[in-house]
Amino acid sequence: MLHIKLDYTFTESHDKKRQLENPLFVLLEAIHSTGSISKTAAETGFSYRHVWGALKRWETKLGAELIVWKKGERARLTPFGEKLLFAEQRAKARVLPQVDSLVSEMEREFALAFDENAHVLSVSASHDLALNRLKDVLSSQGLHLNLRFQGSLTSLAAMTRGECTLAGLHVMLGGNAGSKELQPFKKLLKPETHSLIRFLVRTQGLMLKPNNPKRIQGLNDLKRADIRFVNREKGSGTRIAVEHLLSKAGITPALVNGFEVEETTHLAVAAAVACGQFDVGFGIEAAAAHFNLGFIPLAQEQYYFACQTEALQEPAVKKLVKTLRSKPWRAILNDMPGYDATSAGQVIPVSKFGQ
User: Fold this and answer.
1) What is the DSSP letter of 219?
2) pLDDT tens digits, residue range 24-58?
3) Which residue range(s) make up the domain with 285?
4) How many CB atoms lie within 10 A of CB 289?
């Protein structure tokens, strides 16, 4: 068995997206997207000679071709090169939330080391692509968001135990107060002591391979034997939403090929579809767009920050609410696929949860 050591660096790209990078996969991804070695060189800041030489050295080390290129034709990855790239993207999608949490914790410690009075707001939250954007905006205002990514229910439980100030959780809109989907959350939310802050509304749906080769039209297609589905983990808000939608459609989990296969983030589900291992997954539109996947919208979700009502008077929480209500933040969010910031920053009682 071939053993290869890969070194990664944690970087921030020009559009403020945090990412793990390895030089080989930076080149493979650029070739995959541009179809040109010269454009890859320009995009990565290397010379044409460096790109070509690096790829050839890796081909020798791996014992297989990574790219196919003939004069006058587009450069493209070989099936092996594509498999390698998508496997790496899927692995990164799985670990990035944990890496983000680690970086957030380190930033918190550095902030307090330089200033014991630094404003730090602890948040346990279900993973969402907009959270890191919010973290950057608040950081520029002198407020450090200490993020720990966990499922919605786990995050809410952590808040009720006093382990964090805010819990990030999400539920589908359009249900009634007694719906099965809301009950696990209502067991933890106490009207007399808790309040909710609206963060965003996002679109959830089916993420499909580009051009939809299996001609998937909706949930009913998940019953087909030739459709491979990838799910989210038990306890996540998205898993609860999937089960709720399937139940409404009269589809039992046993009929869905792959229902028991789990990933822990929206990006990991999208990566699993993008790499070709699965035909369809369920998640947010922004994750589908990240991997250039097709998307069928099925539901709107409200993402909340839950907190102790008394915490609303803390300066850090007040700054968060003010930022969520600001025009610059709403412009950032509305520019991301599948998000709506119209109600961002509204503080509501627990009685309006899910409405």
Assistant:
1) G
2) 888 998 898 888 989 999 988 999 999 999 999 99
3) 205-300
4) 16
